[in-house]
């Protein structure tokens, strides 16, 4: 039986090679060829059928086939593409009849296929005297470009042998020796569904610039020459002797590009001895950062509040530092509070605070409003806060109906906003009260996605922290401009890991399962000092079937796709989750996945085991669970692997499902985003307009402006029509109020908004009798010029507004 992944991996590769030669293979033959026992055969079949695109037919046959549970509807991939062309086949056809030419072509194809199979290439198309071969499909390998170039050299080196075979079979062909030319290029492609035909049921259609570029490079190759592109050269340099042949113009491409000729195989990359240190922890390379944070914590315990920012690029380990600090403080007397900002809620007022408060109060997804209100009341009592003063505002803040709160709300949005801010300030005061008893750590994660209202609240906290034993720690990405002065926060920037730190981190992740030295070196080279890259690339290498086939992909995208490829049907669940968002609820995923609970939870379990997803919530009740991608880049990799049409279809389904379950807890902007991504622009405009209205009700003016501007941007993409004109007028009228609130009546933005609305009214309002819109526009524009002191123009517009009001007889307008 297979005792380790290496032997199993080798057996899988041998089985795949047998299937390439014979696309339908009996289990008896497979068992004999591979010298397997019954247990070994069972293990091999399970591995092949699950993730290797092999189907078990009629209980006793294996065959290449798409997975029945994961139909191939197309995907995006990074591929190394090889074009191989037989030179002079037209001349050869003139001295041979069709049957003899067919024999020659068959000999040529057969010899090429032997090299392709040895290097695990995928023959996408056999085009008579040409071959199109993919490396990196259907499975990714770290060295796909190297495999492709090796294959090409083997094919060229085999040309003399091929000519010998041809001349022995067809003496008339010896005066027309065969010659080949080959090109190899690496780049992104879109792979379309598998199509049957010409006896090759796994032919693949690939589209994109990569295919055209590779074909043009082949056209520049001379007989007997192997040319590669710059992207491939970067992946194989050091492994082959390569000569630059200058810049070349390629038809259809605007600028000359450098091309390279591969002369012969070179020496393999030198193995660099890895320094290994005993007793390593998973956190590596932050010897300066963590002690600095701990020193600041000592100052906090002395009553001297500290405010710090951890700034770094995506994947640099900001959250990891926060987690490690929490672990170091676990044995101390400390109160830990954490809020997170998210990309898709950067225009949702107070979203981080709402989410944090809901978690603190223990709200469940499927709870009735009355239950939530009861929890809010109990929480205020437990925290020693005055319920009568805070309950109405916090109920409003948490979108709970007024009937469930004690007190009466004002209908004035500005009053309600002031009450909410007062309630939040009271909670902040409660936080400072706690700090007087026990030192506090307050973490704000992903500050670069904070909404303006939350930023305003946080700015107030910043002014008070130095007076209390509080450590305020924010994380944000490099390049983000803080909404307040940098001087308020002490920077604590994270630098990329150096080589020794990267190697140490690889060792920590391996935890006693050493990688071969050459794989360690590949991770060091590709990770570029980014801890997330190091982590994901190392795990991909550990999860590969064996050392001979271990994959350390070139980029993080390639690494994640290699891991997803090995997950079978769970890959589809990861992609669906990625369309939902980085964080998604189980109940929504279940409504869209079309799978029973047992199957879906099994797939999610596999994703959790692979550490692509984390789960929050009651593990015994899946419907209450929330799943989170380990990192935004993980989510992005799964999302970008989907075809555009697939994404749009999924976004449309999600939007419709959210519509069916709409409640106060589902933000309209979330539904709008899915409709926009689905290409359903009219629906997206409608929901962004609702989001703007909702923001104005909360006096979240900046968020309202963002929502209405987004609606206007999408509206311009719709065909011109009277309805579009009406909608634009309504949106611009709605946009006017928050612009006035934030910029003032005299601002140019307010003027341009009302002027555009006036132009549209001239086209529509008079003819249709929609005088109310015209009145609002004239009144708004009159106020603009009045604020600027242009009284004559303001008077003229005011008179026109009065005329419209008198014509309509509308009392509020007349007043």
Q: Please, could you describe this protein's structure?
A:
By secondary structure, the chain is an alpha/beta fold. The chain contains 33 helices and 19 strands. Strands 4, 5, 6, 7, 8, 9, 10 and 11 form an eight-stranded mixed beta sheet that branches. α19 runs parallel beside α20 and α25 packs antiparallel against α26. The N terminus is likely disordered.
Brief descriptors of the model:
815 residues; alpha/beta; 8-stranded mixed beta sheet; 5-stranded parallel beta sheet; 19 strands
Proportion in β-strands: 5-15%
State the helical fraction: 40-55%
Please describe the biggest sheet, giving its number of strands, its sense, and whether it closes into a barrel. Answer: 8 strands, mixed
Total E-strand runs: 19
What distance lies between the first and last C-alpha atoms, to the nearest angstrom?
Answer: 91 Å
> Which outline best applies?
globular
Uncertain runs:
1-6, 64-72, 194-202, 268-281, 403-408, 547-553
What is the average of the pLDDT values? 78
Structural class estimated from helices and strands: alpha/beta
The value of Rg in angstroms is 33 Å
Number of distinct helices: 33
